[in-house]
Amino acid sequence: MGHGDAGGDGVPAGPEPLGHAFAGIVVSDRFAAYNHLPIDQRQLCWAHLIRDLTVIEQRPGGSGEIGMALLALQRQLFEQWNDRNVGQNNHQQLQDSCLPIRLAFEATLQRVVDLGCERGERTPWAQTVSTCRQLAQCQLALWTFLEKPEIEPTNNAAERALRQPVIHRKISHAVQSASGATCRSRLLTVTATLRQQGRDVWSFLEQAWIAQRLGGVMPSLVPDR
Q1: What are phi and psi of 27, to 5 degrees?
Q2: Phi, psi of 28 (to 5 degrees)
Q3: Residue partners of 200: CB distance under 8 A and separation at least 6
Q4: What is the pTM of this model?
Q5: Which of 13, 59, 149, 169 could disulfide-link 91, Cβ–Cβ 3.0 to 4.6 Å?
Q6: Residue 10: closest CA among 27, 26, 28
Q7: What are phi and psi of 14, to 5 degrees?
Q8: Domain definitions of the chain by residue range
Q9: CA separation for the pair 107, 124 (Å, rounded)
Q10: What's the CA gap between 14 and 1, in Å, rounded?
Q11: Collapsing DSSP states into helix, strand and coil, what is residue 26?
Q12: What's the CA gap between 100 and 31, in Å, rounded?
């Protein structure tokens, strides 16, 4: 969808679904299935990240202080992002205003990583260290939206696209076979992608059916450039 947006619903996102020549940018949560992608082809979803930071803030002691500091920086970041969206600044101004926020966020992550914890430690602080270490390892993917104006900082667009199918699945009692589930997921992917591209769904499906039946060229979901 879009630039490769993906929801965090546990669906594998390896080379098979994306294609070996995938050159887009995936906006996703930190699900491990996306780790095969180069870091410059990823944008970690800040909506999911806010949930992680809120969990840290709700822990006792130093974790709570770290979570509070990171969330405060996140709010500053999105104030600048919202200003750009309403035309109060341009993308260059967004980059400039967000640079100190970015540096402070990364420094806070690194401070937690440097403090560390004991091997095998199972405490709230150890969980905080683990989350911050994971974020520090892929922190370049936090800021792709600052480098590329066409990229959103969240995968909310994908989540919204999934909302209606999820509701339909709940009220229709889903499908009754693996092949039916595969067919349904592919049709939903096709229709959502075509609508985002402003293309006619029925025309695409007709072309695909004719190609499958008569051996013609299958239409592509990749838009012409």
Answers
A1: -100, 115
A2: -150, 175
A3: 194
A4: 0.68
A5: 149
A6: 28
A7: -80, -170
A8: 15-156, 175-214
A9: 21
A10: 15
A11: strand
A12: 28
CB atoms within 10 A of CB 134: 14
Give residue for tokens 């750009």. Answer: 84
Per-residue pLDDT tens over the stretch 36-83: 888 989 999 999 999 999 999 999 999 999 999 999 999 999 999 998
- Residue type (1 letter), 41: Q
Question: Cα separation of 88 and 76, whole Å?
Answer: 15
Distance between CA 73 and CA 67 in Å, rounded? 10
Structure tokens at 137: 């390892």
One-letter identity of residue 79: E
Strand partners, 44: 28
Angle at 137 between CA 131 and CA 142, to 5 degrees: 85
Q: Which two tokens stand for residue 142?
A: 């936090």
| 91 CA to centre of own chain | 21
Tokens 């405490």 locate to 123
Judged by phi (left if over 0) then psi (alpha if -120 to 50, else beta), residue 118 lies in: beta
The predicted structure's pLDDT at residue 115: 95
